[in-house]
Amino acid sequence: MTRLxxxxxxxxxxxxxxxxxxxxxxxLSVASGEILCVVGESGSGKSVTxxxxxxxxxxxxxxxxxxxxxxxxDLCALSPEAWRGxxxxxxxxxxxxxxxxLNPLMNVGAQIGEMWRVHLGLDAAESRSRALAALREVxxxxxxxxxxxxxxxxxxxxxxxxxxxxxxxxxxxxxxxDEPTTALDVTTQAQVLALIKDLQKRHGTAVLFITHDFGVVxxxxxxxxxxxLGHVVEEGTAREVLTNPQHDYTRALLAAVPGLRAPEPRExxxxxxxEVRGLTKxxxxxxxxxxxxxxxxxxxxxxxxxxxxxxxVVGESGSGKSTLARCVVGLLGTDGGQVVIGxxxxxxxxxxxAQLVQMVFQDPYAxxxxxxRVGAQVAQGPxxxxxxxxxxxxxxxxxxxxxxxxxxxxxxxPHEFxxxxxxxIGIARALAMKPExxxxxxxxxxxxxxxQAQVLALLRDLQDRLGLSILFITHDLRVAAQLCDVVAVMRNGVVEEAGxxxxxxxxxxxxxxxxxxxxxxxxxxxxx
Amino acid sequence: MRVLRLAxxxxxASLPTLLLILAGMFLLLQLAPGDTVDALMAQMGGxxxxxxxxxxxxxxxxxxxxxxxxxxxxRLATLDLGFSAIYGKPVATVILERLPPTILLMAASLSxxxxxGLVLGVIAARRVNKWPDTLxxxxxxxxYATPSFWFGLMAIVLFSVYLQWLPAGGFGDITQSYTxxxxxxxxxxxxxxxxxxxxxxxLAIYLRIMRAxxxxxxxxxxxxxxxxxxLSETRVVTKHVLRNAMLPMVTLIGLxxxxxxxxxxxxxxxFALPGLGRLAYESVVQRDLNTLLGIVFVSAxxxxxxxxxxxxxxxxxxxxxVSGS
Amino acid sequence: MTGPNRREMLLLGxxxxxxxxxxxxxxxxxxxxLTVHFSTEQRILNPSLQASTGVYIVGGKMQEALVDLDAQxxxxxxxxxxxxxxxxxxxxxxxxxxxxTWHDGKPFTSADVAFSxxxxxxxxLNYGTTMQQFLTEVQTPDPHTAIFKYxxxxxxxxxxxxxxxxxxxxxxxxxxxxxxxxxxxxxxPIGTGPFKFVQYERxxxxxxxxxxxxxxxxxxxxxxxxxxxxxxxxxxxAQMESGQxxxxxxxxxxxxxxxxxxxxxxxxATTRGNEGNVRTNTLEFNFRNPILADVRVRxxxxxSLNVPFFIENFLGPFAKPGTGPIPSVSTDYYPTSPMxxxxxxxxxxxxxxxxxxxxxxxxxxxxxxRLNPAPWGEDIALWSTFIQQSLQQVGIRVEIVRLDAAGxxxxxxxxxxxxLATGWHQYRSDPAVSTTVWYRSGSPRxxxxxxxxxxxxxxxxxxxxxxxxxxxxxxxxxxxxDFVQRAQTELPLWMPxxxxxxxxxxxxxxNAGNNPRWASSSWHDTWLAS
Amino acid sequence: MRVLKAYARSPAAxxxxxxxxxLLVMGLGASWFYPNDPLGLAxxxxxxxxxxxxxxxxxxxxxxxxxxxLFHGARISLxxxxxxxxxxxxxxxxxxxxxxxxxxAIDTALMRLTEAFQTVPNFLLLLVLVAVFGSTLQTVTxxxxxxxxxxxxxLTRAEFLSLRTREFVQACxxxxxxxxxxxxxxxxxxxxxxxxxxxxxxxxxxxxLESALAFLQLSDPNVPSWGNLIGLGRSVLRTEWYVSxxxxxxxxxxxxxxxxxxxxxxxxxxxRLAGGR
Lengths: 528, 325, 530, 277
Description:
A: alpha/beta, six-stranded mixed sheet, MetI-like_sf (chain B)
């Protein structure tokens, strides 16, 4: 039977927003034991839909039309009180950010226990034991420990499990998952997805699953609804939508999803432009009250990058890949080993190093100074090494056109650009120094798939035109597969496996690599 | 045990600071016109040059500055604060006599400011931009803008002179020798006005901070989670928001310990309280180096202690601190 | 702040007659607590070591001197019953009172007198060191006889009038061991007086209680005396009104409050009982500043100050215009001949300044001066402001340099770093004591309240010296007339205002102010009407 | 521009600006409203407000026109507030920036110094400074500035600590730009807003400190400061309380104005701190 019915729902945005309605005439329905995936890029209104259903619309947003029904009961008719009774008890929700979604000052047991205490009025002991059971069900290692633990003591995956345990505590009819795995590593993602699917099967819960990742969709969806700018543009069973999309937008999205087909092997130039020799880096971080044991971020890492080629360093969080990137560009000093560029060790002098290696950063918003014109930020490097200002600005304009921006945009401020455009500016800034090596640290992971594809295309194009040598840091094998020649898989500060991407994909030597590849969502579909 | 070790560690860590302060103060005061003997002469109403010589010898002012500083620090090493020129007894004793009123005053003002700051802040945040918020915020601004000594004077005029509800000053009525509960009440009565006077500005500050951090915490994800769990608004605030929102306030207490001690100088002189603040003022005027340095030393210790307690409190409130992440 | 009551000593009782108070007829009532305003805490309370009213007001109730002054201001025996002096003035014999015991029960003997005289008055006590400079020894043939031996003649009159203030006796058995200055008894006096020390809470109060074994029969009347430390004038006034304080000595209240309370039937604000404590406000010139070295400028400055106006509007009934270094109350030495005066006359002032060659410059300003006011006494602050205001009218811009006590003394009397200074001159009944030093040249640098003006005048020096050694009262008076004449003509400093300290009593206090140094005296006969 | 709009939108800012403007007019126009020296003898002392039409606000214990002192006092208070604040902010930013940007030993040393200054009760330090260097307008102002910088330094340091690791700063490092450029062009502009907002607090405190000093008779007696007036009024508090009340109220208004402007700036510059509005 239909658990959740959203009928021609329209939510109005506050005046002054980019469009009048967050969502318009959105109609969805989820039956018990069914998973409906709502797919869309940022701004598609998928999250608004979710919070509307929870009755937790952000201040300023208001339901302008349509309705929602839970097992036939009209939600919009509910008083705030009544809705609170429904919330958590009959409709539960899992949020995207496991890091911030839990109260940092309250231990896990208490937070889960609250469900029973508040809704069923059980006493502390009883709700505690139930919480323990719940934690067992989401198979957390050491549930007793977890009960007493505080959120910051758990990993992202574990927190998400806690969230799920909490959400399912009272056997809700409907579970809403808002990008629950986006912030997780692939392997963890795979586990959490499996967990959700499994629980949902056992409890026959109706799940409204919100994601931007077709891979995830392919993994768990029974039915799919594609949203764009507040409208549902296409809906159907997972199979139909994924294999035979009707709407152009859906097609575009699917096309943008990076496949696992490794590119044809290229002839690599024999000369090594970058060589990393036995790099070692240890962080000795210290807490306010007691010293913590030092962390080995890099443990004798070695790799080489051939001129004009791309070396992808793939790893999950904590693998040390970002540390590596920062050591290579000289932002971090190393404890051992050395970085050799063009035959000579990386000069300590900032100015000299600048002309050898440049970097493109992950966060398009943090990587530009909000208070300065983008042109100036691109030109300042060359000016610093003595290029006359006028020439530097002219070069900046040229680069802007090269990275696909309007040359006149140099006079604008960062906030006037979209994320993708900023990433292009970042690339232009790096290229302005005409470096031997370009280090790209997760350059696309913060972007929507479509934009992602464009930026990757740009990089590939630039490499062809300028013969760039790129050290490409990423957590996403699929992205790596797009443009790299050689891949190095890192884990806990050591290189697990390295080699031509084709061979690594075809026959991974280390189990870890294999598990990484297997964890890729929608692999079955997209590697086909 | 661990706390004690921490305390010692903290003290050791702040030794350089202490040394810096004392030496700095000492040298600074050497530049002051006139010494304690001049002050004493003024008090005695004269005496001949020979007497002055004699007194300078008595107060150990006849040796060079470097020597004096050295002597002082050496004595300090043995925790001897020296001999007070004004009071003719060991500085330690003098300060101990004067410490209680100040500590009492600070404690009272702090609790007053903290409690009401908290409550008002929460109310304002819950009714943000509605009339209670506007009222409270305005009051806060006015409290903040009121010069404490002026408020004190006006309070005296109103409550002591016209209404005759509260004593105009002093730390207790000694014409009656109260004992037990009566004495406590007596002192309490004498501390009412000073507490308000000193606490007012801090109340205003805490209120502002609390309001802001409440609003900030209310906008965080885990609050949304709590709501999604179907918790009542009250429970969301009391169980989830409050504790998080208190953290900035707690930090502030530590940062402002020094300021508060400074404020008590003025308040004590307005209400004729026999506290550390007034002692400090007197010893500056009387050029009583030992006493002044002693006070600086003690108040520094006080500030350090308060900060230490605040850290402990903070750690208790926020599990993340202890594990140092 | 150092209040008014710092610096007055009474070496000779003022002969001013005391109106015998009607209270005398009433029968004294026993009991009661007298609460006294204690405006500035003292470093010590022992009057044998520090001579200042701040000490007497407390210590004077617990310790006693050999002699005190009676209502008429004549010496009367206290610990000494009688005395005789050798004609040569080198030997003075004191017969001590018998059966007197210290508060700790030990008997009072001549040994105590000898010890106090030799170890305290002669060595430590300010002014004592000068007065007893030539005291060679104190012989104690028996426990009740003390014989003072001097190497130079000591006039009996001066000695007897000195001892009420400089003759307080401390117990030998307490002080003979250890450093006298650091002796705990200095802050917890042990004496023979009518009141026993009970407690001293720094910054709060001092408590003394009735001494049951006091040698005067059935005295004292009061059960307790409590001195409350109240630094703030306004607060003190409030406590007078609320009855928390019954007596505020030595002009410790604000002028406004003293006048207000004086009009209140519950209180009496009077100079009675302070006849000895006369002071004059000064205006001191620094001759190292060439401008001020010119007498015309000094006179011009004097002419431009409207003293009567100032007194009327700022000081009220407790002050009157001064005529010179010797105040009018000092009938023994007050000159009968007219003295040069400098009335309010702006025209004259301007003329003098023009003559002196100081024409008005930009903004009508002739020149700038710094004025250092002493930090004690509300009247000094008002006076300095008034000087600033008045001199502006004649084109002298005055900058007030505000310093605390230590800073003031050091800057003015040691560093000579001032143009004008203003404070108090204490007249101690004989010009030779603490008045002529303001004019006599050759005072060691750094000695406060002496001639540090960089002004030397042989004429006045000789007059001063002659007067000091002149034995014939008539001639002496004449010499001091010359002295005043000279002082007022040369005008090295100016003393335009005369003030007597004011006591504010609650009228419940009986026998209040019944001797010229009442506030400092032992209060054995003081009692409280219900 | 955006900032200006946001500023103009907050009512707090408008009221505050209005008050400060009024004070500014009072201060600057003082010599025009009251050409005579405000410290000059105007008439009988202690005339109640309104008692004498010549003195709408009465006269103080030295027979000076309170209204005149109020106007001229506005100048003094604003001057002291402004100059002292500038001093504090400059020192604070300099120390905070260097400490926060370089960290390590330099940071430790500078923070020790800051701690030292914060550990001594600031008013106590102020007393000593004034006792030592005298109480002229200049010394008092400088002294106030000297005791007020530590919070600014801490704030600046905190900002720098968080900003120096931002990707755009790292990008500039990689571009080979010098520290001076990084500090002045990249970090400082982004660190400034909260500091500017805090400056209003410093100014308020500075004015309060001066008045407290004057109240203890430790400020410059040659200038018509409000605090001096309050201090004078203290001795006649029980009868002529208006002498203290009037200038006290003026101070209250000033601080109110300053902190309102501060709040406005806060709302405009960093909305997050303004409390999620």
